[in-house]
Task: structure prediction
Amino acid sequence: MKVNNYFINRLLITALVSLLLLPSCGNRESKSERKADGSIKGTISISGAFALYPMAVLWAEEFQKIHPDVRIDISAGGAGKGMTDALSQMVDLGMFSREVTKEEIAKGAWFIAVAKDAVVATYNPQNSSAALISSKGISKEMFTNIYLNANVKTWGDLYKTSDKTRLNAYTRSDACGAAEMWGKFLDSNQESLKGVGVFGDPGIADAVKNDKTGLGYNNVNYAYDMNTRKPYEGLGVVPIDLNGDGEITKDEQFYESLDDIMDAIASGKYPSPPARDLYFVSKGKPENIAVLAFLEWIVTEGQKYVHKAGYVNLTEEKVKTQIQKLSE
Result:
């Protein structure tokens, strides 16, 4: 079974479960306990960013091997939903994929960094301009003309060729960190991005796979297969022409595999934004014993699963900062 199908199935299942459970969770009382043998018993509910969903699922599965009496329910629906659900205490933790704002902190948002990833541009390899996309890439200025100025109508317009193939740009319709980071990369925000609105990371990936003329953007884990470490079948990752010279030079070539792009994110070769930290958020510091134990495990032992899952580990200094935050 391919990883993307696995995640999509999980998304459908958890979405149905959340519809049934969440309305009754307001003012929830999260009961948990540490037993005499040191194991934890309790429940943890999580919702939010598609970006963090695959990593959270893996962490939950590994944590439950150590603490089988902990139930962890996870649903994806975008970073905006994660923050809203966390602040309203509909869930214990919200998955969040952009910086937490002063306004959100004023509303009681407490947050902890857990990993790092990035948003990448995606296209269909059967595109008539595929060779040009691969060799010349797309610069920040070109992306701006596509997503903000909306004055690029064809792929020929983009590369100054006679290609009359229409360029269909896709963007996110849900409030999410991926779109906000893509907007910030272009010195703007999600609300300013133009294009056909599609819900969720899987939605944009499928739209581009089914449209030879399509251009989109995805969180890394929805562009690359975690098992093969290559872009998913039907998707290509657009190299960014970072210096704007109209060519993808050797030091800009780090898109062939998941490991290559992860190394580029970790080293800073890939720009930030659209690279960013990923967070768990809650309404005030969690008091639920199971939640605290889960977070402590994530920033320590749980970090060994990060690279395997296609994310970038926290730096040692950042790990120390998160541990200190949990101990305050």
